[in-house]
């Protein structure tokens, strides 16, 4: 009677595959220690005294909240398995560096919060892969003094950018003006300097001040009138494109 042998072999095969799946970090269906996972694919790990990025995250995670911990690094390999991620809150951790590969595969990410960390600079390719990013909050990094001029150039879906309460003295707005969906930029609480190469930021914000709540203007030199008119024109042209 060979008949029962087939189903049995099949069951053995299924068990074998299931065991393998459970031990594979890539095909994880579990939930990380000290986190709560729900059936809406939300993983909540806020305020759990974590010092490292959680392991054993469900592959299909859509929202990941790791705020209020002491995580020092976002490991690119682990993070980029989560290709369905749309919401990532990393605020209030100890992140010092975001590399070019950190967000390499997060093409659906719409919300990113990096506020209350210890970042010092943002490189040019850092946010490049985030083509669906709508809101980026990056406030309250007390040592953040440098954002590359092209840092946001590929974030064409970006609507809200908040870089308030950092240590920025300059911000090159050339690529910001060109972003088609941008409607709000938070700039308050930075030690802006309005000298030489930063004039266009000051003028832009001054002319369109209603859009930029909380920007404090400190002129440290007088801008020549011809330069003011020229910059105003460029800025208005930039904004007309932005609004239409
Ligand atoms: C940051 O997280 C700690 C707990 O890890 C909490 O005590 C503190 O209030 C949080 N700070 C902010 C600004 O949310
Ligand atoms: C802010 O930047 C200035 C230089 O522009 C530097 O001297 C200062 O230490 C920075 N502040 C912090 C908290 O890193
Ligand atoms: C701003 O950035 C653009 C693009 O990288 C560059 O061409 C321009 O010279 C920069 N402006 C200033 C004032 O540094």
TrEMBL record:
Keywords, sorted A to Z: Cell membrane, Disulfide bond, Ion channel, Ion transport, Leucine-rich repeat, Membrane, Repeat, Signal, Transmembrane, Transmembrane helix, Transport
Topology with respect to the bilayer: Single-pass membrane protein
Domain LRRNT residue range list: 30-63
Cited SUPFAM superfamilies: L domain-like
SMART domains reported for this sequence: LRR_TYP (SM00369), LRRNT (SM00013)
Any Gene Ontology biological process: potassium ion transmembrane transport
Transmembrane segments: none
Segment forming the signal sequence: 1-23
Protein name: Si:dkey-52j6.3
Organism: Labrus bergylta
């Amino acid at each position: 009677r060979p008949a029962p042998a087939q189903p049995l072999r099949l069951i053995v095969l299924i068990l074998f595959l299931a065991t393998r799946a459970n031990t594979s970090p890539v095909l994880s269906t579990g939930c990380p220690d000290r986190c709560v996972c729900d059936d809406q694919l939300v993983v909540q790990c806020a305020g759990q005294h974590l010092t490292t990025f959680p392991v054993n995250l469900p592959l299909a995670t859509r929202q990941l909240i790791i705020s209020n911990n002491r995580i020092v690094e976002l490991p690119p390999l682990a993070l980029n398995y989560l290709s369905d991620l749309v919401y990532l809150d990393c605020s209030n951790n100890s992140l010092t560096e975001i590399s070019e590969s950190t967000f390499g595969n997060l093409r659906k990410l719409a919300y990113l919060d990096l506020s209350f960390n210890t970042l010092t600079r943002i490189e040019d390719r850092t946010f490049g892969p985030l083509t669906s990013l709508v809101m980026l909050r990056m406030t309250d990094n007390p040592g953040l003094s440098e954002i590359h001029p092209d840092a946001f150039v590929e974030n064409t879906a970006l609507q809200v950018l908040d870089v308030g309460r950092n240590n920025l003295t300059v911000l090159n707005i050339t690529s910001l003006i060109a972003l088609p969906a941008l409607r709000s930029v938070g700039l308050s609480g930075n030690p802006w300097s309005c000298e030489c190469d930063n004039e266009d930021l000051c003028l832009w914000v001054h002319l369109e001040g209603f859009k930029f709540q909380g920007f404090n203007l400190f002129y440290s030199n007088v801008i020549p009138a011809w330069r003011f008119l020229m910059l105003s024109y460029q800025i208005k042209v930039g904004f007309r494109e932005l609004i239409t």
